[in-house]
Write a structure and sequence with these properties.
The structure is a homodimer. By secondary structure, the first copy, chain A, is mainly alpha-helical. The first copy, chain A, has a single domain, classed as Orthogonal Bundle (Globin-like), CATH 1.10.490.10. Chain A has 10 helices and 2 strands; from the N terminus they run H-H-H-H-E-E-H-H-H-H-H-H. Chain A has a two-stranded antiparallel ribbon with strand order 1-2.
Chain lengths: 198, 198
């Protein structure tokens, strides 16, 4: 995480991140429900070796996808249109998120940053990026976060295939990636939910 | 849907189902975010031809999974343990859900039943099954619904492979199934969410 200081608003490990309401025991159960195991953790490490050097190309695909759907792009737009400065700040964090997903430690520090990310989508969306986010919608509607699990999953496959020729190893990394992304979108739902519903 | 009358609590198409707060336009956008297309609808039809005759075997796998995780089984248990009558009523609907997922019409009738299912998980969990559900927890916590998208997705693959020898056709059906399940878990989150958050 050596590039932390160069990424605007990136605060992994900061004591200012909120404590997660999710206990380590809750997390273990959630991993059980997701069939997420130590093998997935290892497969994600391997995926990271392949994906991290391709971060910019992956982000190009994802930003192309968001940019081609007005109802997604609108979350980054004020009344005059998309805010390039806001999109650019988010892009830097989104790139680091690829690495963080592949290297996740699944401990309390990690849970706390998941809660921070969740709150940045709902409770305090436009605070992190200050003026760059001014005039944009006050929340990201949760349905799109969960729906985007699919394209975020499907579109990494060709990038995994560029770095690994064994189809079984690709499949293992790809499935681990899907579980890791679904786990995060599930955690990010927390502040959106009614008391006790999550 | 000829077996409707034999399935306890199954009310697809009933005028008593609540109207969905999700408009057809909202649904189209959500499908766009999920990369869900007409090709997926067709692939799901093909998947239905293969999966529906194997419904009981699939349910055995899923019930085995739930039964082997106390924290999942507890939603179907009262203070004396798992309620066999409750599990059996839900099982009949869960089987029909496989068919319904493969034959879904994605219209207002379908959206209305998604809302009905969502409310049965949260707003009024124990009403449909009356005495059979008595003493069981008042809601299904939403995190497990979303997490179970993964096992519900992963475990159907061998069943698809039993009915289709072309790996590409299996993959198309399997991806369509994943999108359809993720779409439903996203819709089912609605009543759990704070006003406007969904």
């Amino acid at each position: 995480m050596t590039t932390q200081s160069t990424i605007p608003g990136y605060t992994y490990g900061s004591p200012d991140n909120p404590p997660s309401p999710v206990s380590m025991d809750d997390l273990a159960k959630l991993e059980g429900a997701l069939l997420f195991t130590e093998e997935d953790v290892q497969a994600l490490r391997n995926a990271g070796d392949i994906l991290v050097p391709q971060t910019d190309a992956i982000l190009d695909v994802w930003y192309g996808f968001v940019g081609s759907h007005d109802f997604l792009l609108s979350y980054f737009a004020d009344e005059e249109g998309p805010r390039a400065d806001y999109l650019s700040r988010v892009r830097a964090r989104f790139g680091k998120w690829i690495e963080d997903t592949c290297r996740a430690t699944y401990d309390e520090t990690w849970l706390s940053y998941q809660q921070e990310i969740a709150e940045r989508h709902y409770t305090r969306k436009n605070q992190t990026d200050g003026g760059a986010a001014e005039g944009t919608p006050p929340i990201i509607n949760w349905r799109y976060i969960n729906a985007l699990v699919y394209p975020i999953y499907a579109t990494v496959r060709p990038f995994l295939e560029k770095g690994e020729s064994d189809p079984e190893a690709v499949e293992r990394m790809h499935q681990a990636w899907l579980k890791a992304v679904l786990l995060q979108s599930t955690l990010w739902a927390l502040p959106y939910m009614r008391e006790g519903a999550w």
